[in-house]
Amino acid sequence: MSDKIFVDACFGKPTPYTPVWMMRQAGRYLPQYMKVREKAGNFLNLCHNPELAAEVTLQPVDIVGVDAAILFSDILVVPNEMGMELDFIKGEGPVFANPVRDEKALDALIGAEEAADKLTYVYDTIKLVRERLADDKALIGFTGAPWTLATYMIEGQGTKTYNICKKLIYTEPEFMHKLLAKVTEVVKYYLEKQIEAGVDVVQIFDSWAAALEKSKYMEFSWPYMKEIAAHIKAKYPHIPIIMFPKGIPAYLDEIDGDFDVFGVDWSTPMALAKEKLGERYVLQGNMEPCRLYSKEATYECVTSIAETMKEGRHIFNLGHGILPDVPVENAKYFVSLCKEVSKRA
Amino acid sequence: MSDKIFVDACFGKPTPYTPVWMMRQAGRYLPQYMKVREKAGNFLNLCHNPELAAEVTLQPVDIVGVDAAILFSDILVVPNEMGMELDFIKGEGPVFANPVRDEKALDALIGAEEAADKLTYVYDTIKLVRERLADDKALIGFTGAPWTLATYMIEGQGTKTYNICKKLIYTEPEFMHKLLAKVTEVVKYYLEKQIEAGVDVVQIFDSWAAALEKSKYMEFSWPYMKEIAAHIKAKYPHIPIIMFPKGIPAYLDEIDGDFDVFGVDWSTPMALAKEKLGERYVLQGNMEPCRLYSKEATYECVTSIAETMKEGRHIFNLGHGILPDVPVENAKYFVSLCKEVSKRA
Question: Residue A287 maps to which CATH number?
Answer without folding.
Answer: 3.20.20.210
